[in-house]
Design a protein that fits this description.
It is a single chain. The protein starts with a strand and ends with a helix. The chain is built from 7 helices and 10 strands. Helices cover 40% and strands 23% of the residues. Helix 1 (36-49) crosses helix 2 (67-81), helix 3 crosses helix 7 (242-256) and helix 5 packs across helix 6 (225-232). The chain has 2 domains: 2-87, ATPase, nucleotide binding domain (Nucleotidyltransferase, domain 5), CATH 3.30.420.40; 103-246, ATPase, nucleotide binding domain (Nucleotidyltransferase, domain 5), CATH 3.30.420.40. It has helices at residues 36-49, 67-81, 108-121, 154-163, 184-211, 225-232, 242-256; strands at 2-7, 11-18, 21-29, 59-64, 86-87, 125-130, 133-139, 145-152, 217-222, 237-238.
Length: 257
């Protein structure tokens, strides 16, 4: 089986694949203070809970946007699985032609999303990852990554608004019934969430225009994807496991090479 790890700023998403099928999915907090043993014990407990033996894992691949955690995770993989993990980065085959001025700048999670989006849904397409930051990527009909854009995630936006003001209260990120709110909380929910929906609609439409593909399909992943999808009307597919599926696909490309 293949163990995949997507190390993000807030969470480490992990998936265990048996061939193309994901058999288990777990989340851990991204905690920079964990030692490799602390992380190893937590993951061991997850495996034990599902009655899976670690020796069944024959390969590990990881992507990371938190470099300070990488050594800990790599050390954990060697100590608890006896495997050196493959890391998505320079030198790893992805099958994606990255049209960035400097391809090394792009985050490994965005590369995984690009591989997964094109392989599973075809091109031209736009993928959106609603994480701590919300990232957009544009792929042409041949699977080339044309570029994209990055904006603050919905949670980050709401937290910045509250922490940067003296009287505004913390509020739950739920879609309000009306744009015109009658309480402070409703005002906040309306402005932040509806404003975010408008941002997504605008960016998708402008990306489609620049791509010359008004019907380019849009694939969304990440924790806030469902909240935005229903209201925006521009998202065609929601795939919460897009990044982990991309990791599996990249691993397979490199094992066949």
């Amino acid at each position: 089986m293949l163990f995949t790890l997507d190390i993000g700023n807030t969470n480490i998403k992990t998936g265990l694949f048996d061939g193309a099928e994901m058999v288990h999915y777990w989340r851990l907090s991204t905690t920079r203070k964990y030692t490799s043993d602390e992380m190893g014990v937590m993951i061991t407990q997850l495996f034990d809970h599902e009655k899976i033996e670690r020796r069944q894992v024959t390969g590990i691949i990881m992507s990371s946007v938190v470099p300070t955690v990488n050594f800990t995770v790599e050390h954990m993989c060697r100590d608890y699985f006896g495997i050196d993990p493959m890391t998505v980065g320079p030198g790893v085959k992805t099958g994606i032609d990255i049209k960035y001025d400097n391809p090394r700048e792009i985050g490994s999670d965005r590369i995984c999303n690009a591989v997964s989006a094109y392989t599973l849904y075809g091109g031209p397409c736009i993928y959106i990852d609603f994480g701590t930051a919300t990232t957009f990527g544009a792929l042409d009909e041949n699977g080339a990554l044309l570029g994209g854009c990055i904006c603050p995630g919905l949670k980050l936006t709401s937290e910045a608004l509250v922490s940067g003001t003296a009287k505004l209260p913390h509020f739950e990120l739920v879609m309000p019934e009306r744009v015109i709110g009658k309480t402070t909380v409703a005002n906040l929910q309306s402005g932040v969430i509806n404003g975010y929906v408008g941002q997504v609609i605008y960016l998708v439409n402008e990306m489609r225009r620049e791509m010359g593909c008004p019907n380019a399909q849009v694939i969304a992943t990440g924790g806030m994807a469902r909240l935005i999808a229903g209201k925006s009307g521009v998202i065609d597919h929601i795939d919460g496991l897009l990044t982990l599926k991309g990791l599996r696909l990249i691993y397979e490309k490199n094992m066949k090479a």
